[in-house]
């Protein structure tokens, strides 16, 4: 059950980061989950573990990390289209 909860929270975090930036996450729901997981790791690594935690994710650094990750991925995807 913990794994399912982590998938849901990771997907929501990825979707929130994409909505905040107004950019689509490549891969749809799976992309949102990956962005949430990797963004959480990135955010906690860069900013530390602080704020409320839900499903093993520290919400504030995870959301900031997901936003950074989506920005990086969108820049890479944009440069590959040229």
From TrEMBL:
Tell me the compartments it is located in. Answer: Cell membrane
Q: Which UniProt keywords apply?
A: Cell membrane, Membrane, Transmembrane, Transmembrane helix
Give the matching Pfam families.
Answer: Transgly_assoc
Q: How does it sit in the membrane?
A: Multi-pass membrane protein
Q: Is the Coiled coil keyword given for this protein?
A: no
* Major location category of this protein: membrane
What's any one GO cellular component for it?
plasma membrane
Q: Where are the transmembrane segments?
A: 6-22, 29-50, 56-77
Q: Which family does it belong to?
A: Belongs to the UPF0410 family.
Its protein name is Uncharacterized membrane protein YeaQ/YmgE, transglycosylase-associated protein family
Q: Which organism is it from?
A: Trichococcus collinsii
What's the source species' lineage?
A: Bacteria, Bacillati, Bacillota, Bacilli, Lactobacillales
């Amino acid at each position: 059950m913990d794994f399912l909860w982590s998938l849901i929270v990771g997907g929501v975090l990825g979707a929130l980061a994409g909505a905040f930036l107004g950019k689509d996450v490549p891969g749809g729901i799976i992309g949102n989950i990956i962005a949430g997981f990797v963004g959480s790791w990135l955010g906690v690594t860069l900013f530390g573990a602080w704020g409320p935690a839900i499903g093993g994710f520290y919400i504030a650094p995870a959301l900031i990390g997901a936003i950074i990750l989506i920005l990086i991925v969108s820049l890479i995807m944009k440069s590959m289209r040229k």
